[in-house]
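Protein modeling request. Please complete all fields; requests missing the sequence field cannot be processed.
Requester role: graduate student
Desired output: 3D structure, token encoding
Chains: 1
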Amino acid sequence: MGTTEVTASSPVRWPGLDGADRRFSLVVMGDVFIEVRAELPGTRFAAVTEDRLVYAATRATVAGTGVNLARTATRYFRRTALLAKVGDDDYTAVIRRELRRLRVRDLLRVEHHSTNGVAVMLRDQSPERGVRLLVAGRDGPNRHLGETDVQGAASEIRRADVLFMDGYSLLAPDSRAALRAAARVAREAGTLVAFDLVPHDIDARLPATDVVPILELADVIITEAPSVARLLGRPEPVGSGEVRALLPALDRAVAGRPLWLLRFGATSLERVLAHQSERVRLEYPSGYGSGIERAGYGDRLAACELYWWLSALSSA
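Delivered output (316 residues):
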């Protein structure tokens, strides 16, 4: 990514977190789940020591990292497409119907004779924002997205302004190879590659040697500062000064000149520091704070930021 400066003070101020005049095209590569969600009134996980029945508002939705990002990206991007692997059970039609409703182009690849992944997300009423328990299917079709699937969507990737990927695909050999293949297709075509470094405990799941090669293929890397610090064996930063002290380690560890969008603060989401090649580009508040729903906020912020940086490049 070039070093074009932007004129607005931050993405949160413009275009803002509620959308913009739609421009550009985006291909999202990520997970798809049928997710059941519930918040448990009057319940704290730490206090549950035996079987318990709780009545609460529950809902089932089409979710997953790919769907969640694509859903909010449609507020900014003129064309949004989703590349993912799904099963061929009764939920497949539900997933495709949701993409049509969202006006997201369907690049889904079907794994025959398999079921779709199902996840359960429960949030208790612990102090502050509650504790989230997310249980995801162990071997869903998402893990089997492969290089052949990427080649089938290569023309869409080449035409896009941005390819957005995330680290959950690093957790299985097939989808890890698919990430590399998609990034290569994008880079050869001049499509911007954006990578979201999740899960936030990726350092406990993979060694840095499995993660850094993907980071080196990215033009934009979105991460919580403590996550990437742990991955590189550094102390977890909290404040701005500690995050800035981490920057030389990022430049040494990851070749190339990616734009780092580092989230940090009390819950690793309150502020963002944009850094590129030995230079801090910008630091700004994310808009997140007390009383704001956290679920989905990171996706809204990521879509907003990508639109902002693309706007800066296109006006250069």
